[in-house]
Each structure stands twice: as C-alpha cells, then as structure tokens.
Specification:
Mean pLDDT: 95
Largest sheet: 6 strands, mixed
Number of strands: 6
Order of helices and strands: EEHHEEHEHE
CATH superfamily: Leucine Aminopeptidase, subunit E, domain 1
Number of helices: 4
Radius of gyration: 14 Å
Strand content: 15-25%
Helix content: 25-40%
C-alpha cells in the first residue's frame, strides 16, 4: 500500500486504473444508491449514471463490501464502509471490503493500480489510527489517498 496526499482523479480514464469510492448500501425507492456525500458525491456528479447502475445490483442495507464496475469511462469500484448513509463507518465492513480489495489487487498486481480514498475518516467519523492497521495489509498496487488538513 502506498499513501498519497493527492486527490483521486476521478476523470482519469487510464485503463490500468481502478478508481474506488466509499459507499453505503442504502438504495432509494427509485433503485439508485445514495451517493450524496464525500467522494461518492464527487464521482456521482461526474458520472450521474453510477447511482442507478449500482442500485440495481446492491441489496438495500445489505452487504457487498467491494464491487468493481466498468463503464465506458473506465474501471470503478464501490468500497462499502457503512450500511445506512447516516451511520458512522463500521470497522468490520472496512475490514471485509479491504479483504476483497486485497484479493483483487493481488490478482492484478502486474497490470492494475487501485486508487482508494482513505475510508471511514471523513463522513464515517472514524479515527485514522483505527483504520490504518487494516489498510496496511493492502499490496503495493493500491494507492490510498489521504487529504490531511
């Protein structure tokens, strides 16, 4: 795992990059995933079709942990940190999501770079110190983007 203090470039259409965003599993009545804060809001404003596409494959308040998705503009992944959009992030979910990301990243160590925003510490309200030991398990082709103020 590499730590970076730069923002993820969600506009980057590099076919060798997987752009990850942190999410919940709250699916609205119109079958779109709630993506109204943080990096989820940022990516849904760039790619407005993502909430509907993800809402069709994610069970309302269920567990999916880590879900890769490809659209015309490239590879993306939803990284579950909570169930309901107003919850605080859940370390157990972050661990399970990290485990699946670790598996995928190891399978693609030769050819893909994964860009993950530091999960759970913004709107999730967890401390960096609680989450970092989980992320340290990630392989070297995962870049964790942390914006420190």
């Amino acid at each position: 795992m590499i730590l970076s203090n730069e923002r993820i470039n969600y506009y980057n259409e590099d076919p060798k990059s997987v752009r990850i965003f942190t999410t919940n599993s709250f699916v609205k009545k119109d079958r779109s995933l709630v993506m109204g804060r943080g990096n989820a809001k940022e990516i849904s404003s760039i790619y407005p079709e993502l909430p509907k596409k993800l809402g069709k494959v994610i069970d309302h308040l269920g567990e999916y942990y880590y879900l890769e998705y490809e659209i015309e503009q490239g590879k993306f992944a939803a990284f579950q940190v909570k169930y309901h959009w107003f919850d605080e992030a859940d370390l157990g979910l972050i661990q399970k999501s990290t485990d699946l990301l670790k598996y995928q990243a190891r399978l693609n160590i030769c050819c893909l770079t994964y860009h993950l925003p530091f999960p759970g510490i913004g709107n999730g309200k967890l401390s960096r110190e609680d989450v970092l030991p989980i992320l340290e398990e990630l392989p070297s082709n995962v870049v964790v983007h942390e914006l420190r103020t």
